[in-house]
Amino acid sequence: MGSSETEGLVMRESQLPYYNFISLFSGRAGERHHHTGFVVASISDVIENFCRAVGGSYWSKIQYDPVQRVRVAFIYPDALGAPSIELVEPAGPGSPIEKFLERGGGLHHLCYEVDNLEQAVLDASARGLVLIRRPQPAVAFGGRRIAWFITRERLLIEYLEKVH
After folding, report:
1. Residue 15 falls within a domain, yes or no?
2. pLDDT tens per residue, range 34-49
3. What phi, psi does 26 have (nearest 5°)?
4. Are strands 84-90 and 31-39 parallel, antiparallel or unpaired?
5. Cα–Cα–Cα angle for 124, 162, 117, rounded to 5 degrees
6. In a domain, 4, yes or no
7. At 143, which CATH number?
8. Which structural domain, as residue segments, surrounds residue 49?
9. Percent of the chain that is helix, strand, coil (3-state, to 5)
10. C-alpha–C-alpha distance, residues 58 and 11, integer Å
11. Rounded to a whole number, what is the distance in angstroms from the first to the last CA of the chain?
């Protein structure tokens, strides 16, 4: 990135604040980027084209999660261990993602698999993230617990406990 002809309107690369975007996607020590969630109106209507668009290899069956009141399916990449894409649709009226979908849906959350969920909850809280859903089992992950946070910038972060 260079500077523009009009000084002050565009920052030079050397003036930009440093952000470690790699850690955003790969996670901190003891964390790995597990998946990115997208809210859609109908998984069955979009999954094939979505998979093709993101270069996915295959997808899971659609699962109903009565605790979160959603249906989910995962699109998996070729690369072993690479993050997947989770498609999420409301499972009827009152679903927690209903309003998000009414506003257009789309990118919803980043999920990190963590070695120690309790420690991840403490660390995220210490970094200023707000806990919006305490750890609870999730059907899509075979009963492994998840916890939900939101950042000041309104990005949802999901933490998933690792299988040991």
Report:
1. no
2. 999 999 999 999 999 9
3. -95, -20
4. parallel
5. 30
6. no
7. 3.10.180.10
8. 31-161
9. 25, 35, 40
10. 42
11. 44
